[in-house]
Amino acid sequence: MTTIRPRRLRTTPAMRALVRETRVSPGQLVLPVFVRDGIDAPAPIASMPGVVQHTVDSLRREAVRAANAGVGGLMLFGVPLESDKDAAGSSGEEPDGILNRGLRAVREEVGDDLVVMADTCLDEFTSHGHCGVLDARGRVDNDATVDAYVRLAVAQADAGAHVVGPSGMMDGQVLAIRSGLDQTGYADVSILAYAAKYASAFYGPFREAVGSSLRGDRRTYQQDPANRREGLRETLLDLAEGADMVMVKPASHYLDVLADVAAASDVPVAAYQVSGEYAMIAAAAERGWIDSEAAASESVTSIVRAGADIVLTYFALDLASRR
Length: 323
Ligand code: PBG
Known about the structure:
Its EC number is 4.2.1.24. It comes from Propioniciclava sinopodophylli. The protein has one domain (23-322): Aldolase class I (TIM Barrel), CATH 3.20.20. Helices cover 38% and strands 16% of the residues. The protein has helices at 13-19, 56-69, 98-110, 142-158, 173-183, 204-209, 229-240, 255-264, 275-286, 292-305, 316-322, and strands at residues 29-36, 43-44, 52-54, 73-79, 115-120, 163-166, 190-197, 245-249, 269-273, 310-313. The structure holds ligand PBG. Residues 119, 121, 123, 131, 167, 203, 206, 218, 274-275 line the site of ligand PBG.
């Protein structure tokens, strides 16, 4: 037998393009964005170089840029005034709350040109920073929290969200939100379920981005990073509850979970390249230690290769405008 030569298919850029197995296109990328109350200019986020907290106006402009670049969607997070936070996170469901104002503004600006998604969670709005309401002993009360998520999701649908994204990992949240939306005339609003969401150190920069007040951790509701099988279990439950799309989060360090979920899911699969994954690339690039464009592109390609149909990434605009 003569030498078998796989290198033949790597000889030229055209050949490599021809045989490429995974292609990333702008339409499958979702840009997460932060909209903050009470500021009159965009505020940089120190731990996420290049990412800002938007005013409602600068958010409108960002949405237009994203639509023009062919990005598939936006995921909105709200950053309320400290004085609007309370134990129940009630400013999340107020029509005038910052997230709902942001959703309205974006829909007004881009209509249906982008898929507009909302983070359906309480942590941005609670004084204690947890993703839910606390019981008398200070534990996150699952069922009371789910009731609050339903009100939050309906308020977000009212404000124009095409998709709600429950990210709090409460049991039964997808089922309850589905029936809440159906009963209020929002049968067409989709649910992107954060199905397998891990208690990750890679959310660190995000806590600065949303001005989180959290002390302690989220390990009684988010999953243990050591558990692979459980990621599949959580996903199957969300599918049974009616999730329209399921998500794995974080992405890069959970590609095994992502591959499992992609193999088992009969709905589109998303993965979230989170703030810490972004920050590691951006910080190393600032020092000249890594090529940010190449690393971002390789990272997102790997996430798609592992099975994601949709990628939430802070690099979405950069990646989309580069092609
Ligand atoms: C919860 C939420 C978090 C992120 C998205 N939704 C934070 C958390 O669970 O602690 C993290 C996103 C990121 O790190 O980029 N509302």
